[in-house]
What we know:
single chain; alpha/beta; Rossmann fold; Elongation Factor Tu (Ef-tu), domain 3; 17 strands
Amino acid sequence: MRDNGTTKRVVVAMSGGVDSSVAAALLVEQGYEVIGLMLRLWAEAGGAANRCCTPDAVADARRVADQLGIPFYVRDYKEAFKQTVVDFFIEGYAQGVTPNPCVVCNRDIRFDKLLKEAISLGGDYLATGHYAWVQRGSNDAFQLLKGIDPSKDQSYILYTLTQDRLARVIFPLGRHTKAEIRQIAEAKRLPVFNRPDSQDLCFLGQGDYRAFLQRRAPEVVQPGPIVNSSGKVLGQHQGLAFYTIGQRKGLGLAAPEPLYVLRLDTTSNSLIVGSLAELGHTELTAGQVTYIRGYPPAGPIQVTAKIRYKAREVEATLTPLPGARARLAFESPLRDITPGQAVVFFDGDQVLGGGIIEKSLPPQ
Protein backbone atom coordinates (compact mmCIF):
# COMPACT_ATOMS: atom_id res chain seq x y z
CA MET A 1 0.00 0.00 0.00
CA ARG A 2 1.07 3.57 -0.49
CA ASP A 3 2.17 5.57 2.52
CA ASN A 4 -0.80 7.95 2.86
CA GLY A 5 -0.69 8.48 -0.86
CA THR A 6 2.81 9.98 -0.78
CA THR A 7 4.94 7.08 -1.99
CA LYS A 8 5.13 6.95 -5.75
CA ARG A 9 4.64 3.60 -7.46
CA VAL A 10 7.06 2.75 -10.27
CA VAL A 11 6.62 -0.19 -12.63
CA VAL A 12 10.00 -1.36 -13.92
CA ALA A 13 10.28 -3.09 -17.29
CA MET A 14 12.46 -6.07 -16.39
CA SER A 15 14.28 -8.32 -18.85
CA GLY A 16 16.42 -10.42 -16.56
CA GLY A 17 19.49 -8.40 -17.58
CA VAL A 18 21.82 -6.35 -15.42
CA ASP A 19 20.51 -2.94 -16.57
CA SER A 20 16.83 -3.39 -15.73
CA SER A 21 17.73 -5.27 -12.54
CA VAL A 22 19.89 -2.41 -11.27
CA ALA A 23 17.20 0.08 -12.32
CA ALA A 24 14.75 -1.74 -10.06
CA ALA A 25 17.27 -1.95 -7.22
CA LEU A 26 18.09 1.77 -7.39
CA LEU A 27 14.41 2.72 -7.30
CA VAL A 28 13.79 0.50 -4.28
CA GLU A 29 16.78 2.15 -2.59
CA GLN A 30 15.32 5.58 -3.41
CA GLY A 31 12.10 4.73 -1.57
CA TYR A 32 9.70 4.10 -4.44
CA GLU A 33 7.09 1.38 -4.33
CA VAL A 34 8.41 -0.84 -7.14
CA ILE A 35 6.71 -3.48 -9.26
CA GLY A 36 8.57 -5.62 -11.80
CA LEU A 37 6.89 -6.28 -15.13
CA MET A 38 8.08 -8.42 -18.03
CA LEU A 39 6.54 -8.91 -21.46
CA ARG A 40 6.51 -12.17 -23.35
CA LEU A 41 7.31 -11.25 -26.95
CA TRP A 42 6.97 -13.10 -30.23
CA ALA A 43 9.51 -15.65 -31.45
CA GLU A 44 9.35 -18.11 -34.34
CA ALA A 45 7.58 -21.36 -33.59
CA GLY A 46 10.11 -24.13 -33.08
CA GLY A 47 12.99 -21.67 -32.87
CA ALA A 48 14.88 -19.97 -30.10
CA ALA A 49 12.87 -17.88 -27.65
CA ASN A 50 12.83 -14.11 -27.96
CA ARG A 51 16.05 -12.87 -26.33
CA CYS A 52 14.11 -10.41 -24.17
CA CYS A 53 12.10 -13.14 -22.48
CA THR A 54 13.78 -16.54 -22.62
CA PRO A 55 12.84 -18.95 -19.83
CA ASP A 56 16.23 -18.19 -18.22
CA ALA A 57 15.59 -14.44 -18.47
CA VAL A 58 12.17 -14.78 -16.83
CA ALA A 59 13.70 -16.89 -14.06
CA ASP A 60 16.52 -14.36 -13.54
CA ALA A 61 14.08 -11.42 -13.40
CA ARG A 62 11.94 -13.29 -10.87
CA ARG A 63 14.99 -14.06 -8.73
CA VAL A 64 15.99 -10.39 -8.72
CA ALA A 65 12.43 -9.34 -7.83
CA ASP A 66 12.34 -11.85 -4.98
CA GLN A 67 15.68 -10.59 -3.69
CA LEU A 68 14.43 -6.98 -3.81
CA GLY A 69 11.12 -7.94 -2.21
CA ILE A 70 8.97 -6.55 -5.03
CA PRO A 71 6.02 -8.06 -6.91
CA PHE A 72 6.77 -9.43 -10.36
CA TYR A 73 4.33 -10.00 -13.22
CA VAL A 74 4.60 -11.36 -16.75
CA ARG A 75 2.24 -10.27 -19.52
CA ASP A 76 1.77 -11.84 -22.96
CA TYR A 77 2.36 -9.39 -25.81
CA LYS A 78 3.44 -11.88 -28.47
CA GLU A 79 0.79 -11.01 -31.07
CA ALA A 80 1.06 -7.26 -30.56
CA PHE A 81 4.84 -7.48 -30.96
CA LYS A 82 4.53 -9.63 -34.09
CA GLN A 83 2.06 -7.26 -35.76
CA THR A 84 3.81 -4.06 -34.68
CA VAL A 85 7.52 -4.81 -34.82
CA VAL A 86 8.21 -8.00 -36.77
CA ASP A 87 5.80 -7.25 -39.63
CA PHE A 88 7.26 -3.72 -39.84
CA PHE A 89 10.75 -5.24 -40.10
CA ILE A 90 9.75 -7.55 -42.95
CA GLU A 91 7.76 -4.86 -44.79
CA GLY A 92 10.71 -2.49 -44.65
CA TYR A 93 12.93 -4.91 -46.50
CA ALA A 94 10.12 -5.63 -48.97
CA GLN A 95 10.10 -1.90 -49.77
CA GLY A 96 13.87 -1.81 -50.28
CA VAL A 97 14.74 0.12 -47.10
CA THR A 98 16.72 -0.83 -44.00
CA PRO A 99 14.27 -0.63 -41.07
CA ASN A 100 15.10 0.01 -37.42
CA PRO A 101 12.64 -2.14 -35.43
CA CYS A 102 14.02 -0.96 -32.07
CA VAL A 103 12.65 2.55 -32.70
CA VAL A 104 9.20 1.11 -33.42
CA CYS A 105 9.35 -1.22 -30.42
CA ASN A 106 10.14 1.68 -28.10
CA ARG A 107 7.45 3.89 -29.63
CA ASP A 108 4.59 1.39 -29.89
CA ILE A 109 5.35 -1.40 -27.41
CA ARG A 110 7.52 -0.16 -24.55
CA PHE A 111 6.31 3.41 -24.18
CA ASP A 112 2.75 2.85 -25.32
CA LYS A 113 1.38 -0.60 -24.52
CA LEU A 114 3.77 -1.27 -21.65
CA LEU A 115 3.23 2.23 -20.25
CA LYS A 116 -0.53 1.66 -20.32
CA GLU A 117 0.01 -1.68 -18.58
CA ALA A 118 2.04 0.09 -15.91
CA ILE A 119 -0.72 2.66 -15.38
CA SER A 120 -3.27 -0.16 -15.11
CA LEU A 121 -1.19 -1.52 -12.23
CA GLY A 122 -1.54 1.81 -10.45
CA GLY A 123 1.89 2.98 -11.50
CA ASP A 124 2.78 6.66 -11.41
CA TYR A 125 5.81 5.97 -13.59
CA LEU A 126 7.33 3.42 -15.94
CA ALA A 127 11.07 2.85 -15.55
CA THR A 128 13.43 1.11 -17.94
CA GLY A 129 17.14 0.34 -18.08
CA HIS A 130 17.86 2.70 -20.98
CA TYR A 131 20.96 4.88 -20.82
CA ALA A 132 19.31 8.31 -21.13
CA TRP A 133 17.65 10.70 -18.68
CA VAL A 134 14.83 13.18 -18.40
CA GLN A 135 14.75 16.62 -16.85
CA ARG A 136 12.45 19.63 -16.88
CA GLY A 137 13.66 22.70 -18.73
CA SER A 138 13.26 26.36 -17.83
CA ASN A 139 9.90 26.47 -19.66
CA ASP A 140 8.70 23.46 -17.60
CA ALA A 141 8.79 21.19 -20.67
CA PHE A 142 10.38 17.77 -20.33
CA GLN A 143 13.75 17.27 -22.00
CA LEU A 144 15.31 13.99 -23.13
CA LEU A 145 19.08 13.94 -22.62
CA LYS A 146 21.89 11.62 -23.62
CA GLY A 147 23.22 9.10 -21.16
CA ILE A 148 26.55 10.22 -19.72
CA ASP A 149 28.29 7.02 -20.92
CA PRO A 150 28.88 7.73 -24.64
CA SER A 151 29.48 4.06 -25.37
CA LYS A 152 26.03 3.12 -24.01
CA ASP A 153 23.91 6.22 -24.73
CA GLN A 154 20.50 5.09 -26.07
CA SER A 155 18.81 8.46 -26.56
CA TYR A 156 18.88 7.87 -30.34
CA ILE A 157 16.22 5.16 -30.17
CA LEU A 158 14.04 7.18 -27.78
CA TYR A 159 13.46 10.23 -29.97
CA THR A 160 9.75 9.41 -30.43
CA LEU A 161 8.94 10.05 -26.77
CA THR A 162 6.34 12.78 -26.38
CA GLN A 163 5.78 15.21 -23.50
CA ASP A 164 2.96 13.14 -22.00
CA ARG A 165 5.11 10.01 -22.07
CA LEU A 166 8.21 11.70 -20.70
CA ALA A 167 6.09 12.89 -17.77
CA ARG A 168 5.57 9.23 -16.86
CA VAL A 169 9.05 7.84 -17.53
CA ILE A 170 12.11 7.35 -15.33
CA PHE A 171 15.54 6.30 -16.61
CA PRO A 172 17.54 5.50 -13.46
CA LEU A 173 20.74 4.58 -15.34
CA GLY A 174 21.21 7.69 -17.46
CA ARG A 175 23.76 9.30 -15.19
CA HIS A 176 25.80 6.14 -14.64
CA THR A 177 28.36 4.38 -16.80
CA LYS A 178 27.96 0.73 -17.71
CA ALA A 179 30.96 -0.12 -15.54
CA GLU A 180 29.28 1.57 -12.57
CA ILE A 181 26.06 -0.39 -13.16
CA ARG A 182 27.91 -3.70 -13.11
CA GLN A 183 29.72 -2.63 -9.93
CA ILE A 184 26.40 -1.73 -8.30
CA ALA A 185 24.91 -5.08 -9.34
CA GLU A 186 27.86 -6.95 -7.88
CA ALA A 187 27.84 -4.88 -4.69
CA LYS A 188 24.13 -5.61 -4.22
CA ARG A 189 24.79 -9.27 -5.04
CA LEU A 190 22.25 -9.35 -7.79
CA PRO A 191 22.46 -12.75 -9.49
CA VAL A 192 22.69 -11.17 -12.95
CA PHE A 193 25.69 -8.88 -12.28
CA ASN A 194 27.87 -10.65 -14.88
CA ARG A 195 25.22 -11.52 -17.44
CA PRO A 196 26.47 -10.44 -20.92
CA ASP A 197 24.65 -7.77 -22.92
CA SER A 198 22.46 -8.83 -25.84
CA GLN A 199 23.73 -7.41 -29.14
CA ASP A 200 21.29 -8.68 -31.79
CA LEU A 201 17.63 -8.04 -32.53
CA CYS A 202 15.65 -9.91 -29.90
CA PHE A 203 13.40 -11.88 -32.28
CA LEU A 204 16.04 -13.20 -34.68
CA GLY A 205 16.76 -16.45 -32.87
CA GLN A 206 20.33 -17.14 -33.95
CA GLY A 207 20.85 -13.49 -34.87
CA ASP A 208 20.96 -13.95 -38.65
CA TYR A 209 18.43 -11.61 -40.26
CA ARG A 210 19.17 -13.06 -43.72
CA ALA A 211 18.10 -16.56 -42.71
CA PHE A 212 15.10 -15.06 -40.91
CA LEU A 213 13.93 -13.26 -44.07
CA GLN A 214 14.49 -16.35 -46.20
CA ARG A 215 12.19 -18.28 -43.87
CA ARG A 216 9.56 -15.61 -43.25
CA ALA A 217 9.53 -13.61 -46.50
CA PRO A 218 11.37 -15.43 -49.30
CA GLU A 219 9.80 -13.08 -51.86
CA VAL A 220 12.01 -10.21 -50.64
CA VAL A 221 15.29 -12.08 -51.14
CA GLN A 222 15.13 -12.94 -54.83
CA PRO A 223 18.40 -12.73 -56.83
CA GLY A 224 18.76 -9.98 -59.42
CA PRO A 225 21.27 -7.89 -61.36
CA ILE A 226 24.01 -5.69 -59.97
CA VAL A 227 24.35 -2.65 -62.22
CA ASN A 228 26.37 0.55 -62.19
CA SER A 229 24.83 4.01 -62.39
CA SER A 230 25.00 3.85 -66.20
CA GLY A 231 22.92 0.68 -66.25
CA LYS A 232 25.71 -1.75 -67.13
CA VAL A 233 25.22 -5.20 -65.59
CA LEU A 234 28.24 -6.17 -63.49
CA GLY A 235 27.03 -9.26 -61.71
CA GLN A 236 24.19 -10.78 -59.68
CA HIS A 237 23.06 -10.07 -56.12
CA GLN A 238 21.51 -12.64 -53.79
CA GLY A 239 18.54 -10.51 -52.70
CA LEU A 240 18.23 -6.77 -52.08
CA ALA A 241 17.52 -7.32 -48.40
CA PHE A 242 21.08 -8.57 -47.94
CA TYR A 243 22.65 -5.22 -48.83
CA THR A 244 22.68 -1.71 -47.40
CA ILE A 245 23.73 1.73 -48.59
CA GLY A 246 27.50 2.24 -48.42
CA GLN A 247 28.32 -1.47 -48.31
CA ARG A 248 31.58 -2.41 -50.02
CA LYS A 249 32.38 -5.95 -48.93
CA GLY A 250 30.46 -9.01 -50.08
CA LEU A 251 29.48 -7.72 -53.53
CA GLY A 252 31.47 -10.41 -55.35
CA LEU A 253 32.63 -7.99 -58.06
CA ALA A 254 36.03 -7.50 -59.66
CA ALA A 255 36.60 -3.87 -60.65
CA PRO A 256 39.56 -1.48 -61.12
CA GLU A 257 38.29 0.69 -58.24
CA PRO A 258 36.28 -0.14 -55.10
CA LEU A 259 32.52 -0.25 -55.65
CA TYR A 260 29.87 0.61 -53.06
CA VAL A 261 26.13 0.08 -52.84
CA LEU A 262 24.46 3.34 -53.94
CA ARG A 263 20.80 2.34 -53.77
CA LEU A 264 18.33 -0.55 -53.96
CA ASP A 265 15.84 -0.49 -56.84
CA THR A 266 12.88 -2.67 -55.87
CA THR A 267 11.04 -1.93 -59.13
CA SER A 268 13.65 -3.78 -61.20
CA ASN A 269 15.11 -5.79 -58.29
CA SER A 270 18.47 -4.21 -59.12
CA LEU A 271 21.38 -3.38 -56.84
CA ILE A 272 22.95 -0.11 -57.97
CA VAL A 273 26.67 0.27 -57.27
CA GLY A 274 29.21 2.96 -57.96
CA SER A 275 32.38 4.71 -56.86
CA LEU A 276 33.05 6.40 -53.54
CA ALA A 277 32.61 9.79 -55.24
CA GLU A 278 29.07 8.79 -56.28
CA LEU A 279 28.19 7.63 -52.80
CA GLY A 280 28.60 10.79 -50.73
CA HIS A 281 25.41 12.80 -50.22
CA THR A 282 24.99 16.12 -48.44
CA GLU A 283 21.22 16.27 -47.84
CA LEU A 284 18.37 14.01 -46.84
CA THR A 285 14.66 14.24 -46.32
CA ALA A 286 12.90 12.49 -43.47
CA GLY A 287 9.26 11.62 -42.80
CA GLN A 288 7.27 10.75 -39.67
CA VAL A 289 9.23 13.48 -37.90
CA THR A 290 8.48 14.07 -34.23
CA TYR A 291 9.85 16.67 -31.85
CA ILE A 292 10.37 16.12 -28.14
CA ARG A 293 8.79 19.46 -27.26
CA GLY A 294 5.75 18.64 -29.42
CA TYR A 295 6.19 21.10 -32.29
CA PRO A 296 8.87 21.96 -34.89
CA PRO A 297 11.16 24.99 -34.83
CA ALA A 298 9.89 28.08 -36.62
CA GLY A 299 12.56 27.85 -39.31
CA PRO A 300 15.96 26.37 -40.14
CA ILE A 301 18.20 25.73 -37.13
CA GLN A 302 21.69 24.37 -36.58
CA VAL A 303 21.82 20.92 -34.99
CA THR A 304 24.00 17.88 -34.78
CA ALA A 305 22.53 14.70 -36.25
CA LYS A 306 23.07 10.94 -36.26
CA ILE A 307 21.92 8.90 -39.27
CA ARG A 308 22.38 5.55 -37.53
CA TYR A 309 22.58 4.40 -33.93
CA LYS A 310 26.36 3.90 -34.04
CA ALA A 311 27.07 6.79 -36.45
CA ARG A 312 29.08 9.80 -35.36
CA GLU A 313 27.24 13.05 -34.78
CA VAL A 314 27.74 15.63 -37.53
CA GLU A 315 26.84 19.28 -37.96
CA ALA A 316 23.67 19.91 -39.98
CA THR A 317 21.01 22.46 -40.81
CA LEU A 318 17.50 21.24 -39.98
CA THR A 319 14.64 22.72 -42.00
CA PRO A 320 11.09 21.69 -41.01
CA LEU A 321 8.80 20.75 -43.91
CA PRO A 322 5.02 20.38 -44.05
CA GLY A 323 3.41 17.03 -43.25
CA ALA A 324 5.73 15.99 -40.40
CA ARG A 325 8.75 16.00 -42.68
CA ALA A 326 12.15 17.68 -42.54
CA ARG A 327 15.25 18.32 -44.61
CA LEU A 328 18.76 18.06 -43.22
CA ALA A 329 21.77 19.57 -45.01
CA PHE A 330 25.22 18.45 -43.89
CA GLU A 331 28.45 20.39 -44.05
CA SER A 332 30.28 17.45 -45.66
CA PRO A 333 29.03 14.50 -47.74
CA LEU A 334 28.01 11.38 -45.78
CA ARG A 335 28.59 7.94 -47.26
CA ASP A 336 25.89 5.86 -45.58
CA ILE A 337 22.59 7.78 -45.52
CA THR A 338 20.17 4.86 -45.58
CA PRO A 339 16.43 5.08 -46.26
CA GLY A 340 14.46 3.39 -43.47
CA GLN A 341 16.93 4.26 -40.74
CA ALA A 342 16.20 6.98 -38.21
CA VAL A 343 17.88 10.37 -38.33
CA VAL A 344 17.94 11.98 -34.89
CA PHE A 345 18.85 15.59 -34.18
CA PHE A 346 20.42 17.07 -31.07
CA ASP A 347 21.26 20.36 -29.42
CA GLY A 348 24.30 19.45 -27.36
CA ASP A 349 23.21 16.65 -25.02
CA GLN A 350 19.51 17.32 -25.60
CA VAL A 351 17.47 15.28 -28.09
CA LEU A 352 15.32 17.56 -30.24
CA GLY A 353 13.55 14.87 -32.27
CA GLY A 354 13.96 12.67 -35.28
CA GLY A 355 12.32 10.93 -38.20
CA ILE A 356 12.69 8.15 -40.76
CA ILE A 357 15.05 8.79 -43.67
CA GLU A 358 13.19 8.89 -46.98
CA LYS A 359 15.95 9.67 -49.47
CA SER A 360 19.30 11.40 -49.82
CA LEU A 361 20.51 14.01 -52.28
CA PRO A 362 24.00 14.41 -53.82
CA PRO A 363 26.04 17.61 -53.54
CA GLN A 364 24.70 20.37 -55.74
